[in-house]
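Q: What does the assembled structure look like for these inputs?
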Amino acid sequence: MGAISKARSQAADAGKFVADWLEHRAGIVTMMEHFLYEPVPKRGAWIYTLGSATLFLITLQFLTGILLLFYYVPSTDHAWNSIYYIMNEAYFGTLIRGIHYWSANFLLAVIGLHMAQVFFSGGYKAPRELNWVVGVVLLLLVVIIAFTGYALRWDQDGVWATVVGMKIGSYSPFVGAYTIQFLMGGDTIGPATVSRFFAIHVWLLPAALAPFIGIHLYLLRRHGVFGDEMEYRERLAKLQERQRLEEYEQYEDDGEPYVGRRDRADRD
Amino acid sequence: MYAPATGKQKPVEQEVITEENVFERPDETIAFFPKQVLYDLFVSTLLLLACCALSYVSPAPLTEPADTATVTYVPRPEWFFFFYEQMLMFFPGYALISFGAVVVPTVFVVLLFAVPWLDRGPRASSTRRPFATVIGVLVVVVVLLNMLMAVSRIINFPGQ
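A:
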């Protein structure tokens, strides 16, 4: 056996040992097989990638957000300066903040496309109703996260757009004024506003988002990817045939001669 | 009484197909790996490359430091709020603004949550359920038109 063949054989053995060890301790191989070989509609399509693209962009948001926290200072005195530093001095600061900004923009666009795809393909129908509801919750959370991130820049656009947004929110009946006062930390936008928006943007809403993503994925795996009605032609044909036969039997039981739906409509 | 929705445990030939379970499993399936995984990876890579390129071509904005004392600054929302901002133009004045700002969006969100129960028919294809499709297309058109109107207003009247 040559040296290269021997090295390959040893590497394969080592790989098998590691895989067996992990499988024995944590069941990782079984878990990977379960996830990777989950049955999905055969036709497959690029449009089915919108959900995974959404998940990927949210992951990018988490990762780049964590990196930005290494330099960002949530106070009115330092927020703008720290972002200026990230953009002009920090290693890869422009790239990290750029990815955070642009992936947020793409995220909103991809979520819109994902929802449109699910809506127009009828992917929310039984038994997937709950997954649609969880998806709408996720949409609302992402929109609020996007809104609360705007003020953290503490630049003119971010601050004044936030003021306008909160002014609009204050028109909510009964709770509007109290909620806005809580969010601003007083009557006007200031240091308390940055602290609260920071807490909401970085801690509260991502902590709420994560479990809902988990539920969304769990329900997706439980009921499978819907895809498109085209993927269910045979089953729909069987359903229609069964319903037709049941209708026929019903007429036979009633003692009436069976006529097709259209003839019956004409007769009525 | 609760009956498990999923009939996946049963072999296909034993399954009684009903309106409840017709969409539980497709006629034919393939494994998620490798085809769909490769599709997903391709799209994710493209998005990442686009984000990286745009980070340098059009860096994330940072205007001048906030001045909370100014009263003349006209802020612009992000593009995904254009639709909402433009809608408020249709409800001017103190009496109507709460209607446009709160009531209409709340009704929209409630309807969005209720979609699966508003459209319970057994057909999923958009051509087989024209009412839902027309409503969906109308919503998309209204959102896009509102966004275009907001863009047009911002370009033509930057100070408003």
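Chain B has four helices and one strand.
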